[in-house]
Description:
With 528 residues, this protein is an alpha/beta fold. The protein has helices at residues 2-14, 19-22, 32-35, 57-62, 64-69, 112-124, 171-176, 194-210, 229-236, 249-252, 265-276, 282-295, 322-334, 371-389, 437-441, 503-507, 509-527; strands spanning 27-29, 74-77, 81-83, 99-105, 128-133, 179-180, 185-186, 215-218, 239-242, 261-262, 297-300, 304-306, 338-342, 399-401, 408-413, 416-421, 432-435, 450-453, 458-461, 468-471, 478-482. The strands form five sheets. The chain has an eight-stranded parallel beta sheet with strand order 10-9-8-5-2-1-13-12. Strands 14-15-16-21-18-19 form a six-stranded antiparallel beta sheet, with helices on one face.
Amino acid sequence: MFKLLSCFLFVSSTLAATADQWRGRSIYQVVTDRFAVADDSAPTCDSSARKYCGGSWQGIINHLDYIQNMGFDAVWISPVVANINVTTGYGDPYHGYWAQDFNSLNSHFGTADDLKNLSSSLHSRGMYLMFDVVVNHMGSATNPPDFSLLSPFSQESDFHPECFITDYNNQTQVEQCWLGDTTVPLPDIKTDDSTIAQTLYAWITKLVTDYSVDGLRIDTVKNVNKDFFPGFASAAGVFTIGEVLDNDTTYTAPYTQVLDSILDYPTWFNLVPAFTSPQGNLSALVSTAVLSQQSYKNGSSLSGSFLENQDQPRFQNITTDQALVKNAMTWPFVHDPIPILYYGQEQGYTGGNDPLNREALWFTAYEQDKPLVTHVKTLNAARKLAITSNNKYLTTTTKFLPQQNAASIAISKPPLLTLLTNVGSQGSASASWNVASADISAMSVKAGENLVDVLTCTPHQVSSDGSFTVQGSGGMPIVLLPASSLSTKGTLCPSVATKKNAGIAGKRASAWLAVGGAVILGLFGCFA
């Protein structure tokens, strides 16, 4: 018994995640109230009503197979703390961003034991848990707020004086005035006060420790003074990724100096219009991605790349052309940052602005054979295989290879070569790509060898001079891996693979990446 207990303690300590360990992760973002209910029922949920619909931490546990089977090895959940417990002029705080008591949990989502069980259930699968946290503000159902209802900051003097942000070019106003409005004011916590900062540092240490949290997504980072964050990140002791909602890398990059990383919003602002129609500007997308690589402290490999989230309209609210959708969805998985997928994207959800983009997932019955679910599975599998095939993959900077066709992008991150286009599926235009022999050689692929599009399992042969030319079909993306990296006994295109042994990379890459070789060795010792 003692040996078994020691084993579990070993695994737990080994899974304490560093920023470097997060590089290889793939994150699935969940709005807890809308993902799954504990008893697997399917209650009515009208997104426009802004009401609690019944999703819970136990519901997430019930459907971890669904998440893991798509290849995700980290889950980001909604804020967990107790929110204002009344219906406001803007509905219920089902999203979790209107905190009333930092030291209590949101009972709508379950108990402390439920949340601990979610953490342990993820860790037993080698998966990471990311909490969404808010330190900028609290919530109030009235204006002026009744500060005595808030905890641990229950005095008006704990907050900046009431004023609502009207000028986002005024950084002092951005950091010290309030979000929200007179219907639901969000009192701005005085994080520039050292006593208040220390209270928040102690709180996050306890929260992370109590629930064995592996990473934090931090909300509304640009609304908090920068010098608050080094102490907060140190107190947390885990990976931190901040939301800095801005389209300019000059503005967002300094936040990578005080946190591990940020969500790459500047690139997102170009990603959506780039693939919304054949008129999209792919060059602007590439230019911004390169700026992120050059500007962020750790390059862009620790930033978060995404197409959708809880604050923005779903991509298919803008276009439902499936060629454009698949190209846009491919982007986060094939260049430097950590890919993040917002729940429901894989099911083809089309919700518009908040709250319509926060639909209940249970109406899909968590189907796993839909085209976009399959697309996501393949992208995750290809990325993991690339990581295991090249031990420098995660720290090698992506190259964007010049193309004469303005509707085409070629993305090189050996052994992955990804070809994207925005011609769409409706017009007569077609995409083509040309890759020079030097770029093919950098992938350790020789003339006459095959690169396999893992999305269709179609082989494409490198020409005799070592260069590579591909003609697109139906406006679809192409994600290529050398046939020599694919196993005949693996899960990715075994019929055209040339590697004879499955090995770790073929069948069990995700398991090794999830728990690490040290855990495997530790487990051998536990059961020897």
